[in-house]
């Protein structure tokens, strides 16, 4: 629905049985009962209001990942949408507590004053994000703008969002998760036997295992999202096109790059997005091109396949320049903060911490000033994909050296590898309030590897 200046979407969160593995019924938590949820499409600078109705048996929180969103709509982990008709959590007086939780339905308002980008929305409930996303609560939210539209990049049926994730299934077809209750009741979201995060052995693309897509011998824009709880992928095309550079990256998490960047392989950590142009005209008609995962083994070593089905006209172009990127140049006096991502003790048990402390939604760990560029140094003991809410950042250095091949452009998630430190420049804009910094390994997040900060 669309009214003057505002686009409206209505989404019902519900339990649904769907067929993921052929011949099996799998109960999921689905936005509109589907996994992934419906793709929301917005225009930069035009408000989108998404009204969520929670018909699930558990409370939820919706976060628009990559959205430049006022704090009250950002999906703070304790800002719950309670299930429709659930009066038990109302505290007796029959009204939702002002400003912090709501019952049944909740309208999230997204001004989207940001460049075109591939965003995604997912659950963000404190301590329960990992199992709730695993059960299906994730979907794309695309933002378009004039800069992007003028570029004549591949579009329409040649512009394809690919949500990649791994899942495990029980013998009856239900999703297998260490703490999931088979009756879909609420279960604690801590997984101390799974310190590295929960991995599946089936790779799904847009909710289907190892799918095949027939393509024209033409350029395609693939919007790659790693929506896995914990798995990192090293994507490559097999066979690689002659001359290499099969993936031409055009955008990162938060929008277009300054110029196309060719890659033979792409390392993609949880929550990262890479938009690439793949030119299937570089292959003879009839070629089967496998999107492989070089970090996987056995069933997780392949993601999907493309079959180059026919010759076709191609009016798209790959411009040499894409967008103006303002380089953030923090001055000598720029505020600096350090964030150490490491194992620690959480509630008397093993868990994950930032600066030695577990997440506390009431404790502000930093108060950055709006409009000021800061340098944040992120340290990691092991692999941690670190995500910052509200505003994107630019990677300045890795271990004191220049950024890596996958760090280009505006990012909102950066893949920290074991014993690394990464400096990012970040400038928070416009919205005052409480936001998050966390590891996007969702089990790590639930095991308390999250910090709150308040923009002032
Ligand atoms: Cu994609 Cu704070 O999350
Ligand atoms: Cu986010
Ligand atoms: Cu982590």
Describe the structure.
The chain is mainly β. The chain is built from 3 helices and 32 strands. Helices cover 3% and strands 44% of the residues. The protein has 3 domains: 2-147, Immunoglobulin-like; 156-311, Immunoglobulin-like; 336-455, Immunoglobulin-like (Sandwich). The two termini are 35 Å apart. Bound molecules: CU-O-CU linkage and copper (II) ion (2 copies). Residues 352, 384, 439, 441, 444, 449 line the site of one copper (II) ion. CU-O-CU linkage (C2O) binds at residues 63, 65, 122, 124, 271, 387, 389, 436, 438, 440. Its EC number is 1.16.3.4. Belongs to the multicopper oxidase family. This is Multicopper oxidase CueO. It is an enzyme of class 1 (oxidoreductase).
What characteristics describe this protein?
binds copper (II) ion; metal-binding; binds CU-O-CU linkage; 32 strands; Immunoglobulin-like; mainly beta; Cupredoxin; 3 helices; 456 residues; globular; five-stranded mixed β-sheet; seven-stranded mixed β-sheet; Multicopper oxidase CueO
């Amino acid at each position: 629905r669309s009214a003057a200046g505002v686009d409206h979407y209505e989404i019902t969160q519900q339990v649904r049985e769907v067929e993921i593995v052929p011949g099996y019924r799998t109960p999921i938590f689905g936005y509109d009962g589907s996994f992934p949820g419906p793709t929301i499409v917005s225009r930069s600078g035009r408000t989108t209001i998404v009204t969520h109705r929670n018909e699930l048996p558990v409370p939820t929180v919706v976060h628009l990942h990559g959205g430049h969103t006022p704090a009250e709509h950002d999906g703070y982990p304790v800002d719950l949408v309670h299930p429709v008709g659930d009066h038990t959590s109302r505290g007796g007086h029959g009204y939702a507590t002002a400003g912090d939780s709501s019952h049944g339905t909740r309208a999230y308002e997204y001004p989207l004053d940001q460049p075109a980008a591939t965003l995604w929305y997912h659950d963000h409930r404190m301590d329960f994000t990992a199992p709730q996303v695993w059960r299906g609560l994730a979907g794309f939210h695309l933002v378009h703008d004039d800069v992007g539209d003028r570029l004549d990049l591949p579009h329409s049926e040649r512009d394809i969002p690919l949500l990649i994730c791994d899942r495990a299934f029980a013998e009856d077809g239900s999703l297998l998760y260490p703490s999931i209750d088979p009756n879909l009741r609420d279960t604690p979201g801590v997984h101390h036997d799974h310190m590295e995060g929960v991995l599946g052995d089936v790779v799904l693309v847009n909710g289907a295992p190892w799918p095949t897509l027939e393509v024209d011998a033409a350029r395609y824009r693939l919007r790659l999202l790693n929506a896995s709880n914990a798995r990192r992928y090293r994507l490559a095309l097999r066979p690689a096109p002659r001359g290499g550079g099969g993936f031409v990256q055009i955008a990162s998490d938060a929008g277009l790059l300054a110029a196309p960047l060719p890659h033979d392989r792409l390392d993609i950590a949880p929550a990262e997005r890479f938009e690439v142009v793949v030119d299937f005209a570089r292959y003879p008609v009839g070629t089967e091109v496998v999107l492989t995962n070089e970090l996987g083994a056995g069933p997780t070593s392949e993601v999907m396949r493309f079959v180059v089905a026919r010759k076709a006209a191609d009016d798209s172009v790959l411009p040499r320049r894409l967008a103006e990127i303002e380089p953030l140049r923090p001055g000598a006096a720029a505020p600096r903060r350090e964030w150490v991502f490491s194992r620690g003790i959480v509630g008397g048990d093993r868990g994950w911490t930032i600066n030695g402390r577990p997440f506390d939604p009431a404790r502000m760990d930093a108060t950055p000033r709006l409009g000021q560029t800061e340098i944040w140094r992120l340290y990691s003991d092991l692999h941690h994909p670190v995500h910052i809410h509200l505003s994107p950042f630019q990677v300045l250095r890795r271990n004191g050296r220049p950024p890596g091949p996958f760090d280009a452009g505006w990012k909102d998630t950066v893949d920290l590898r074991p014993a690394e430190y990464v400096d990012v420049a970040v400038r928070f804009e416009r919205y005052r309030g409480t936001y998050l910094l966390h590891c996007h390994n969702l089990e790590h997040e639930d095991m308390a590897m999250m910090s709150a900060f308040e923009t002032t």
